[in-house]
TrEMBL record:
Name under which the protein is recorded: YerC/YecD family TrpR-related protein
Transmembrane spans: none
Native source organism of the sequence: Paenibacillus alvei
Superkingdom, taxonomy of origin: Bacteria
A Pfam family hit: Trp_repressor
PANTHER family according to UniProt: LMO1763 PROTEIN (PTHR40080), TRPR-LIKE PROTEIN YERC_YECD (PTHR40080:SF1)
């Protein structure tokens, strides 16, 4: 886990702050204050790539839809296959929430 080098009180507090956000609007406002437009675009693109890889899309489909380079796709794929499994956790929870919402 690469982030272990940063672990500590400040990072814990930062994550607790993010977890305190309750609505999409609050997330928009916070990330608008925190990040540049390009930083947000980069995070969103990586998320899209991860979701598409998780759903077994091909590299060419991902390049076209997410406008991602093969280097970005490979980097995200490495995280999916050899990372902390956080994408899978998030996608499973999102599916669970969507399933609850459709009932």
């Amino acid at each position: 886990m690469l982030i272990e080098e940063l672990q500590g009180k400040s990072l814990d507090e930062f994550f607790k702050g993010i977890l305190s956000l309750e609505t999409i609007e609050e997330c928009y406002a916070f990330f608008d204050d925190l990040c540049t437009v390009n930083e947000i675009k980069t995070m969103v693109q990586r998320f899209q790539v991860a979701k598409m890889l998780y759903n077994h899309n091909t590299y060419s489909e991902i390049e076209a839809e997410a406008n991602a380079s093969t280097a970005t796709i490979s980097r995200v794929k490495r995280s999916l296959n050899h990372g902390n499994h956080s994408y899978e956790l998030m996608f499973a929870r999102m599916k669970e929430q969507a399933d609850k919402g459709s009932k």
